[in-house]
Amino acid sequence: MRTLLHGLLFLCGVALASLVEVDDSNFESLVFGQPGKYSFVYFYAPGCKHCLDLEPHFEPLVDLYEGTNLQIFKINGRTNKRVRDKYQLFGYPTLKLFSSQGDDIGAYTGIRTTAKMIEYLQDATGIHPIYPPKTVVEVSPENIDQELFEKLQNDVLLVFYAPWAERWDNAHNSFYERLAQYYKNEVKDGTLFRAVDVSKAENNVLLARFKVTKYPTLFYFPKNREHNEKPFKLDHDVGPEEIVEMLMGSDVGQTEFSLVNSLESTEVEEDIEDDDVNAQYRDL
């Protein structure tokens, strides 16, 4: 059990792609060596805290732009003095976009998330990323029965997440998505990973039904359950270790949770309350 846990946690700390690192000796030949291709370069310094914070957001760009006319590189700005002096680098991390002719198009100074960098690159180059298929299925009021309540023979995880929150802002490379891929391709035990984006107004009814007030909040529906069986809820320390250990049967602080029976019953109760108010008003 512990071996599997350690393997899964290692997986969750590793980026999907291999980021090519250039240096003083090959910077121009690699960054400017492909006619018609742009290059987005990450200048970093070892031990730089802001660089460490950026890397999980930057590295997914390699996979997303593979096969396009945009290349992704990194370079140690501290040890590669020639390139550092050439572009007058004074702080790290620095992100620069170059054309294949060697033109310095400019530095990216926006919010350092994958989504925001994609917006910038798309505006600057017109190049769109190639998104891989996701294993995590997004749940909405329209498909929740099919994707959750009818999956009685499967372990099902449902997370309510805020897409602006750290570790959840890149749906294609989050630890949750990587866990879903690993369970599907390696563990193969039928565990299903589902998610609700709390920023979408249409999902407000699900927030009410599941009584969610903080993000992320995770619900675990064990396999071979009955329709009326209570799921487990975890609304603190929702990370890869807690999820894996919970699936393995450990107690990580999850509690049983009673769902509102249905959205329709909630609406009926509200209508009844409104009728009572109207009746009292007429009596007056």
Blueprint of the fold:
Elements: H1 2-12, E1 20-22, H2 27-31, E2 38-44, H3 49-58, H4 60-64, E3 70-76, H5 81-86, E4 94-98, E5 104-107, H6 114-125, E6 137-138, H7 144-149, E7 156-161, H8 175-187, E8 192-197, H9 204-209, E9 217-221, E10 232-234, H10 240-247, E11 255-256, H11 263-283
Parallel strand pairs: 1-3, 2-3, 6-8, 7-8
Antiparallel strand pairs: 2-4, 4-5, 7-9, 9-10, 10-11
Sheet with the most strands, sense and barrel status: 6 strands, mixed
How many helices? 11
| CATH topology category name of the largest domain | Glutaredoxin
Measured by DSSP, the beta-strand proportion falls in 15-25%
Runs in which pLDDT lies below 50 for 5 or more consecutive residues are 262-284
Shape: elongated
Element-level helix/strand string: HEHEHHEHEEHEHEHEHEEHEH
Q: What share of residues is helical?
A: 25-40%
Mean pLDDT: 86
Total beta strand runs: 11
Supply the number of structural domains.
Answer: 2
Which CATH architecture of the largest domain? 3-Layer(aba) Sandwich
Note the gap between the termini.
68 Å
By CATH reckoning, the class of the largest domain would read Alpha Beta
CATH superfamily of the largest domain: Glutaredoxin
| Helix and strand composition category | alpha/beta
> Main sheet: which strands, in order across?
6-8-7-9-10-11
- What value does the Rg take, in angstroms? 24 Å
